[in-house]
Every structure is written in C-alpha cells, then in structure tokens.
Amino acid sequence: MTADLALAAWQIRNEQRSFWRNRRAAIFSFGFPIMLLLVFGLLNKGNTVDTRGVSWETFYVPGILAYGVVTTAFSNTAISFAYARDNGVIKRIQGTPLPWWAYMAGRIGSTVLVTCAMSVLTLAIGSTLLGVEVHASMVPGLLCGLVLGTMAFTALGIGFVRFLPSADTAGPMQAFLIMPIAFVSNVFFPLDNAPAWLDKVASALSAIMGKLGAHSRIEAIRVAEEKGWL
Question: Domain residue spans in the chain?
C-alpha cells in the first residue's frame, strides 16, 4: 500500500511538471482568469454594482474565482485526457507497474493543486490590489465550495472526453460550452437589465458556474455591513 501511494505521489509530481512545462495549457487554464481579474478588476476599481449595493471588486472576484475553477478543473482535465487518449498513453498505462488508480490519482491530484494555487492567487490579488475583504467566517464555506466544485468539474471534464472526436477539437469544444455559460451567469458583468428569458437562463446556469453560493455570500455580507455586524 505504501508503495502504491508513493507511485501516486510520483505521478502527481510528474503531472505537475508536464502541466507547467506546457505553456499553452498553463497560460490558458491558470493565467487567463488571473489576467481577466487584473484587467477588469483594476479598470473598474472603485465602481459599484448599483442594483446589488456592492462594490465591483466584491462582485467580480467570486466570479473570476468560479471561472478559474472551471478552467483548471474542467477545461484542463478534458484537454489533457483527450491528448493522453489520442497519443495512446492511457492504453500503455496498463502495461506499466503504475496502477490505474494511481494514474488517475496523479491526474486529479495535479488538478487539485493547480486549482488551489489559482484560488489562492485570485484571493491574494483581490485582497491586496483590489481591496476585497476575505472574512474568516467565510473561509470554511469557501473551502467547501472549492473542494466540491473542483471534484464536480474534474469528473465532468473526464466524462466530457467521451464526446470529443479528437484531441484537436478539445479546446474549441470546451470553449464553445464554457464561454456562453460564463457570459450569461454574471461572471464577467451583472445582467440586471437583461431580458426576462435571459435572466431565467442566467439564474439556472449560475448554479453550474458556482456563482449562486458566491453571490449569496455577497448579499449576506452587504446585509451584515448595513446592520453593523462586520
């Protein structure tokens, strides 16, 4: 058992090296959400989302955090597994001493590490550069949401590979699926003045992007600040 765990840990290390050496994957899944946070966060710093009564930074940081979880867990997993499948890596694993579960643990463990790094960096930028306060009472709920979100989107990414005809189509197909959902789910900007039908679609898709819980906490903070609890 100890030897198997050592193999899983070695596989996580190997996957981490492969991820960070692949500049396109690292920039797209890790760097792109951070770039959006810096650009739009700094451009709109000091503005308010009038209909919600919160600052733009408080509105935007949870959205980018949710979007980053999706790109690192779902998009990166789908693309990497598609290339592993097409290159015969998954088949060749069966002829190696590495157990199948250890290979999967390495892939998933690497995804978790990347998601954690992206989340910490997002919160650090939001706190230091944008002035968003992260209250200690929110940390347990935030960690729970990140863990469950990472698990769910990693599983979806693995399952999504079944519908990819080739690895070359993985990037465009996942973008075609994720980007429309992100735009109508209040990730990049509020849709308070959107048509009624789009608002219903956005409300349904907010749960998919993980924004429902995030904005519920934002509203809770706003009410607490008004009542002088914070």
Answer: 2-176
Task: Report whether 123 contacts 61 (CB < 8 A).
Answer: yes
Please, what's the b/e burial string for 75-95 (b: 16 or more CB within 10 A of its CB; e: otherwise)?
A: bbbbbbbbbbbbeeeeeebee
**pLDDT in 10s for each residue of the chain, 230 residues:** 677 778 888 888 888 888 888 777 778 778 888 888 888 888 877 777 765 567 777 778 888 888 888 888 888 888 888 888 888 888 888 788 778 888 888 888 888 888 888 888 988 888 888 888 777 777 787 888 888 888 888 888 888 998 888 888 888 888 888 887 777 777 777 766 667 777 677 666 655 555 444 444 444 444 444 544 44
Would you tell me how many other CB atoms lie within 10 Å of the CB of residue 179? 13
